[in-house]
């Protein structure tokens, strides 16, 4: 049984990145996919000033409930705790965020006290390397309010072909009902880092991004997902829904991109593409529950 890490408070972001840069890792993987570690944090409260800064950075309107992507920010310290701990056998820097699925069972009020539970599972061999999943749950008392699955890739060491279903996952092309153009300024990565706590160097500047093989800084994938939900706010299907996205090509900073969406069969399909509307940065779907 994996070790449970109980956080009594939220550590500083700087402490996590210092550990990420300095901690030694075993590189030893279990022989089969399993639960590698679990972290819990009880009594998490929302800081209203931080929430408002997040809303502004992602273009959400002010309202009495949390944006559906904001619990991911609240849970980020648990994610980092697991990834820098002995539970994860590799260094954090270099992980690629592939997919993210959020299920919101109901809206979360700003003044609610929340318990957060996160489990790390893996590895799952795929042709490009090893996939790992972070399963996150947010509860109020015994009521499950919000769930998330974050899938990450560690390149190298993959040995099995992807499953048949995985091989069939392709970019969905559609004729959009509407198209919007977003200008994404150079400072978007730094701004989102301040409101989310995710200060990965690849997002902060061209100089720091080049240290990790990127020619320019790239925007956070979860900023892009949040920005999509802000754009679709008036179309969201009530309090309970599922929103799933696949991250494709990185959005380099600064950039101009297209946001495309259409309603089909009770769901909403959407995509963020390059300025010509051809190459996908993100594809996603929202389904009512």
UniProtKB/TrEMBL annotation:
Q: Which domain of life is it from?
A: Bacteria
SUPFAM superfamilies the UniProt entry points to: Thioesterase/thiol ester dehydrase-isomerase (SSF54637)
| Designated name of the protein | Uncharacterized protein
Organism, as annotated:
Microbulbifer thermotolerans
